[in-house]
Amino acid sequence: MEQIFETPWPFWLSGAGIGLFVILLAWLSGKPLGVSGGFAQACDAKQRGKDPWKLIFAFGIPLGAFLGALAAGGPNWTYELGFFESEISQSLAVKTGMLFIGGLCIGYGARWAGGCTSGHAIVGVAQGAKSSLIVTAGFMAGGVLVTQALYWLGA
């Protein structure tokens, strides 16, 4: 059990598993995999019955993480936020506000771009969609710039 739940999997095994799942889903349902579509359905009552598997998938991710944590000996609840603990601020309110604003920006960006990073980078790029190649390059550039800005602010 420790090998499955506590030891990080090799990148090539995790990547192959995600790739096979994407292919299998597209083959069986004819639908692309994406997380933001499920959350969009959760927020829009008119779309809830359209593709019920998307909603199940979106809520299954945190449920699966919680069940995995239980199987590994229980969740380890903490208020520690990694990089934010030492570099940004000691105030829980400031850290929470920054994460909330970041979440709003990510949600807005995913809706504006027609999908989230996983949908574009994993599925769209695999399908050779030009829009996904452009959006994924934008996600990567934005991530690098924000990371550098955070390090600069924390220095």
Write structural notes for this entry.
With 155 residues, the protein is mostly helical. It has two domains: 1-77, no CATH class; 86-155. It has eight helices and no strands. Helix 3 (36-43) crosses helix 4. The radius of gyration is 18 Å and the shape is globular.
Please state the structural category: mainly alpha
Per DSSP, the total helix count is 8
Biggest beta sheet attributes: none
How many domains comprise the coordinates? 2
C-alpha Rg, in Å? 18 Å
Low-confidence stretches: none
Shape: globular
Q: Can you give the helix content as a percent range?
A: over 70%
**End-to-end distance:** 41 Å
Number of strands: 0
User: What is the H/E order?
Assistant: HHHHHHHH
β-sheet strand percentage: under 5%
- Average pLDDT level: 80
TL;DR of this structure?
With 155 residues, this protein is an all-alpha fold. 72% of the residues lie in helices and 0% in strands.
Summary tags:
mainly alpha; single chain; 2 domains; 8 helices; 155 residues
Q: What is the topology?
A:
Elements: H1 2-5, H2 11-29, H3 36-43, H4 52-71, H5 83-86, H6 92-112, H7 117-126, H8 130-154
Helix pairs in contact: 3-4, 7-8
